[in-house]
Amino acid sequence: MPLNLGWTGILLLALIALLFFGPSKLPQLGRAVGSTLREFRSGTKELIQSDDPAAQPKSESRE
């Protein structure tokens, strides 16, 4: 389910995060979210590649 957030929704989320976490914690929180998303993407990419039979090398030998 995609989130259809416009600029007002993004600004509202940023304001809520600023009020909840404070300005000193936001850079640390952003780095943590970014690294988590990066790991998630690489994990799903590896999973998709391992399920794709075309991506795996053929082990048959030609004679």
TrEMBL record:
It is a single-pass membrane protein. Belongs to the TatA/E family. InterPro entries: TatA/B/E (IPR003369), TatA/E (IPR006312). It is found in: Cell membrane. The gene is tatA. GO terms for molecular function: protein transmembrane transporter activity. GO terms for biological process: protein transport by the Tat complex. Keywords: Cell membrane, Membrane, Protein transport, Translocation, Transmembrane, Transmembrane helix, Transport. Part of the twin-arginine translocation (Tat) system that transports large folded proteins containing a characteristic twin-arginine motif in their signal peptide across membranes. TatA could form the protein-conducting channel of the Tat system. Residues 44-63 are annotated as: Disordered. GO terms for cellular component: TAT protein transport complex. Forms a complex with TatC. PANTHER family: SEC-INDEPENDENT PROTEIN TRANSLOCASE PROTEIN TATA. This is Sec-independent protein translocase protein TatA.
